[in-house]
Design brief:
26% of the residues lie in helices and 22% in strands. The longest helix is centred in the middle third of the chain and has 16 residues, at 104-119. It has helices at 54-67, 82-91, 104-119, 129-137, 159-170, and strands spanning 12-20, 29-36, 39-47, 69-77, 97-100, 123-124, 139-142, 148-151, 189-190. The two termini are 31 Å apart. Helix 3 crosses helix 5. It has 237 residues and is an alpha/beta fold.
Length: 237
């Protein structure tokens, strides 16, 4: 079973990109999803090594926009240094860019929208043990002011998760209507999301991860693209 319809090339359709920025403590990550009717499929996910310059992240996004036909919206985390990054992305001719301030209410909007898609079976992702782990260890709790706070355990990351969430959020309507995140569970609970099917790679065994090169679209083990061209995946931290 494939999440990508076979009637047209994988890079043709309606695409949305999400970018979560980090550098020294957190990684930067970029995700791209394709929307077919109401179904959103993750087609690309890259996490950059710690210390990667933002110019490299920007260059990767420009390559994505040239490869995917057509990118309708790009949502970028503009918290902190992200403000400068969004301005630079606009100057670099990236189209349909919008900076998203990741305040607590906005994070609730983003995660609530993505989880709603998950529960309806409208989000399809490949088997990626690192991404699945980030989803499963993410926790949320309700603050005394009634807002939802998202955290992850020490020694883990959630960069891929937020890049994916931003891409899925970008695929929604211009004014997203959502059910408050707290309505999906109880206070201070993990996501408790245990997918059993991974449509992009079939029912992959738990010890098998399928990743593809962004340039040739072959599995990494079969990719022969030169270093610097292939979509290298950062080693686990």
């Amino acid at each position: 079973m494939s999440a990508i319809p076979s009637d047209k090339p994988w890079n043709v359709g309606t695409f949305f990109i999400g970018t979560d920025l980090g550098q020294k403590i957190d990684h930067s990550a970029v995700a791209a999803v394709r929307k077919d009717a109401d179904v959103v499929s993750l087609v690309h996910l890259k996490r950059f090594k710690l210390g990667t310059e933002y110019g490299v992240v920007l260059g990767h996004m420009k390559l994505l926009q040239r490869t995917l036909q057509t990118v309708h919206r790009i949502y970028i985390d503009r918290t902190g240094v992200g403000e400068f990054f969004v301005e630079q992305a606009t100057r670099e001719d990236l189209k349909n860019v919008k900076g998203i301030m990741l305040s607590l209410p906005e994070k609730e909007n983003i995660m609530g929208y993505m989880k709603g898609n998950m529960q309806k079976g409208l989000l399809r992702i490949p088997y990626d043990s690192e991404l699945i782990n980030e989803i499963n260890v993410e926790r949320y709790e309700q603050t005394q002011t009634g807002q939802t706070k998202f955290t992850h355990p020490n020694g883990t990351h959630d960069d891929r998760l937020w890049a994916l969430a931003l891409a899925v959020y970008a695929s929604g309507p211009a004014i997203t209507r959502y059910v408050p995140f707290a309505a999906f569970g109880h206070i201070s609970r993990p996501w408790d999301y245990r997918p059993k099917e991974y449509p992009l790679s079939g029912n992959a065994p738990p010890n098998v991860t399928v990743h593809r090169c962004m340039v040739c679209w072959k599995p990494y083990l079969e990719c022969r693209c030169p270093p610097g061209v292939r979509n290298e995946r950062s080693p686990p931290s």
